Predict the structure.
Amino acid sequence: MGRVAIVTRQGLRGPGGHLYKEGMAVAEKFRRVLSPATLKQNAWIPADTDEGHAYWEALQIIRRRTKANHNALHQAVVERLRANAGERFWNEHNFVFRREDPVHGEVFLHGKGATPAWGDYAADATGLTLIALNMAEPVLVVRGRDAGRAPGFSPHGAGRNFSRTEHRRRHDGLSPAQMMATETAGLDIRFCAGVVDGSELPSGYKRAGAVTEQIRDYGLADVVDCIDPYGCIMAGDKPPPWKMRNRR
């Protein structure tokens, strides 16, 4: 018999974006001195400098705050429902990870679109990570295989078939509400801004079964459990009403 589970999937795009912007400005200063021929988008901060240490610590602050946000959301639901909480775990994705490499020593891995799939990627790692595919498909609970071809990562989700703009163009003629009714029948789907963002519906993402098959075929992770959806609360790419009022 299964248990009801709460899965939260959110980050700190605002603070994270500001940190990235400031970090790139510092990286650009190093690029101009150390390697002017290197493209600007490939600028870097040397890890063994004061700036490198400061940037890594700032990333850890973002990580700790993100984890605290997840814990606060879960705890609020548990207290409101007076529920008995079972196992809790979390993992970051789309983040920067540090690990020892037998050839190159300490390396930094930028896991864009990726979830860490090795057991000790962080001090609080449990060995289990979550891969959310789309709002109408199960969330995968996986144990990573540390696949060298990955290198050491698994997907963080299904990934988009095409851009949000292209998705909207391909479904021209159907309202987002009509699309949602067709694609999420039987599920309780809500958008916290009160407006359905059609680009966040299942048709905007790769087929969940194909992603699961690729995880298996490429030996990226073992699926140990699945969390079937009852419903989903989405943010979406639409301005919430309070922002629209501020603009007016």
